[in-house]
């Protein structure tokens, strides 16, 4: 289980990551592009993963991490249940999402 403050701390630890409002949620961006969103009310995170990363992480447990419905999910947007995921797995998935969106010069540090 990962609490909201731990998630925010992990997310903002990436170089040039910023938190901004995004409709009724919080978004986490690098270079003005979203790599994660947080729905505090439902204790869910949505990450932007590559198809391969999404496939790998979603094979763990479809009740913990799973693609969004429809075309959003096919684009790599992946839901994570904060109350069910281990912190180390979330950190790995979050790193993949960040590296997927960040400029190469920033993402290279985390690969």
Descriptive notes:
Helix content is 37%, strand content 28%. The protein has one domain: Aspartate Aminotransferase, domain 1, CATH 3.90.1150. It contains five helices and six strands. The chain has helices spanning 4-12, 51-58, 70-74, 87-101, 104-107; strands at residues 18-22, 25-30, 33-39, 44-48, 65-67, 77-81. It is of the alpha+beta class. The longest helix has 15 residues, at 87-101. A six-stranded antiparallel sheet has the order 1-2-3-4-6-5.
- E-strand count: 6
User: Within the largest sheet, what's the order of strands?
Assistant: 1-2-3-4-6-5
Largest sheet: 6 strands, antiparallel
Strand content: 25-35%
Series of H and E elements: HEEEEHEHEHH
* Straight-line distance between termini: 25 Å
> If classified by CATH, what would the architecture be?
Alpha-Beta Complex
Backbone shape:
globular
Nearest-angstrom radius of gyration?
13 Å
In the CATH hierarchy, the third-tier topology is known as Aspartate Aminotransferase, domain 1
Low-confidence stretches: none
Mean pLDDT: 95
Helix/strand-derived category reads alpha+beta
- CATH class categorisation: Alpha Beta
- Helix tally? 5
State the main characteristics.
about 110 residues, alpha+beta
Short description:
The chain has 111 residues and is an alpha+beta fold. It is 37% helix and 28% strand. The protein has a 6-stranded antiparallel β-sheet.
